[in-house]
Amino acid sequence: MNKEEQVRVGFRDLFNKMVWLNKFKMEDRLKGYKPSEVHCIEYIERNIDSNVTKLAESLYMTSGAISKITKKLIKKGLIESYQKPENKKEIYFRLTEQGKVTYKIHEELHKEFEERDKAIFEQVTEEQFDSMLSFIEKYSRHLDTEIKKQGVDVNSE
Questions:
Q1: Contact, 66 vs 40, CB < 8 A?
Q2: Element (H or E) spanning 86, and its range?
Q3: How far is 70 from 81, CA to CA, in rounded Å?
Q4: What is the pLDDT of residues 63-75, one digit of tens each?
Q5: How far, in Å, CA of 98 to CA of 78, rounded?
Q6: 91, 93, 92, 96: which is closest to 78 by C-alpha?
Q7: Which of 12, 62, 103, 157 is most buried, with most CB under 10 Å away?
């Protein structure tokens, strides 16, 4: 296996291990919620005037899929929709109090996972971080270009 393959396989394996390790606590503390629902909640809380288009672009999902998820979240009482007086066409979302509780649980879990992994990150030098971040940024830009070739603009807002 060449180094390029090692990096790709390494990223995939790291991601899969993180998902596996985090999955049980996430499922236990966020019973009844699918990961896509929790990610919608997270995006809505962190971004003002979230709408279907912005959610779809951010989560790499179709607008149809996001519409279904937001309808479920409204039905569950986690988000509510609103419109601006100057724009009656566009529908935006914000968290309800119940949605904020779910968001807070999710954030607490992320902090717990960060604490678990802190020991390894403390060993990484500034230069190593810079090198990794530079690579991730280049690779991400490359993938954005490939996605655009498919006819999807992931960064339009």
A1: yes
A2: none
A3: 9
A4: 999 999 999 999 9
A5: 5
A6: 96
A7: 103
Phi, psi (rounded to 5 degrees) for 29: -80, -20
The angle, 0 to 180 degrees and rounded to 10, between the axes of the packed helices 3-29 and 97-121 is 140
CA contacts within 13 A on the Cβ side of 35: 8
CB 100 within 8 A of CB 93: no
pLDDT (tens digit per residue) in 40-59? 999 999 999 999 999 999 99
What tokens appear for 153 in the block? Answer: 């603009």
Phi-psi region of 44 (alpha: psi -120 to 50; beta: other; left: phi over 0): alpha
What burial letters (b/e) apply to 40-78, b meaning 16+ CB within 10 Å? bbbbbbeeeebbbebbbbbbebeeeebeebbebbeeeeb
Question: Within 10 A of 103 (CB to CB), how many other CB atoms are there?
Answer: 18
Are 95 and 103 in contact, with CB atoms under 8 Å apart? yes
Stated as kind and residue range, the H or E segment containing 94 is strand 87-95
Query: What is the pTM (predicted TM-score) of this model?
Result: 0.82
Residues 6+ positions from 34 with CB-CB distance below 8 Å: 69
